[in-house]
Amino acid sequence: xxxxxxxxxxxxxxxxxxxxxxxxxxxxxxxxxxxxxxxxxxxxxxxxxxxxxxxxxxxxxxxxxxxxxxxxxxxxxxxxxxxxxxxxxxxxxxxxxxxxxxxxxxxxxxxxxxxxxxxxxxxxxxxxxxxxxxxxxxxxxxxxxxxxxxxxxxxxxxxxxxxxxxxxxxxxxxxxxxxxxxxxxxxxxxxxxxxxxxxxxxxxxxxxxxxxxxx
Length: 215
Ligand code: SF4
Known about the structure:
Structural class: alpha/beta
Mean pLDDT: 85
Largest sheet: 7 strands, mixed
Strand content: 15-25%
Helix content: 25-40%
Order of helices and strands: EHHHEEEEHEEHHHH
Shape: elongated
CATH class of the largest domain: Alpha Beta
Distance between the termini: 46 Å
CATH architecture of the largest domain: Alpha-Beta Complex
Bound molecules: iron/sulfur cluster
Number of strands: 7
Number of helices: 8
Number of domains: 2
C-alpha cells in the first residue's frame, strides 16, 4: 500500500478532485488562503520542543501509520510525561501518559469535517507509534485566537478511516474525477487550474466550449 501524506486527507474531504489534481497530476498553487496558512504554520513548522506549564510542546513532530498507510507531521503535540519520566525523546514509547495533537488553522473558530478528520488521522498515527490512547485534540484558529477541542469519537474515527480507504481507492485509479462546482470552489487554490465552471459541465458542452475557442 502506498503511503499517503496526511494533509491529503484534508484535501480529499474538501474535494476529491483537489486531492487527485495534487497527487495524480502534481498540481500545486497558492492563493491568499494557502499563503495565510503558511504564515500561521511558520512557528509550528520548526522542529523542536518547549515546555510550558509542565507540558512539553513537541513541534512539527513526524508521524506515521503502517496500518493506514499514512505519514505526515503534527503541528504541535502536547505531551504529559509519566511520573518520574522526563520523556525527553519524542519517540520514547512509554515515557508519556497523554498526547494531545493541536493543528493550526488560519481561519476563525469554525467547525470543518476535513480539519477534524485530519486531526483524528494524526491521533491514529500517534496511537500506533506511542501505543497510547489519544482521546482528544484541538484546532487552534489563528484569526480568532480560539482553540476548539475535538473529541475523537468512534463516529469520527470511522469517518476518518473510511475517508482514508476512499482516498486510497481514488488514487489507485490514477484518474482525476470530474469537477463539481460548489461554494468551496471559490476558496480553492486550484480554482484556476481546475476551472470547475467549465469542467463540471457535461462532456458535450465542454466540447462545444472548446470548439468555440478553437475557431
Ligand atoms: S475548484 Fe472546486 S472542483 Fe476544482 S478542485 Fe477546487 S474545490 Fe474541487
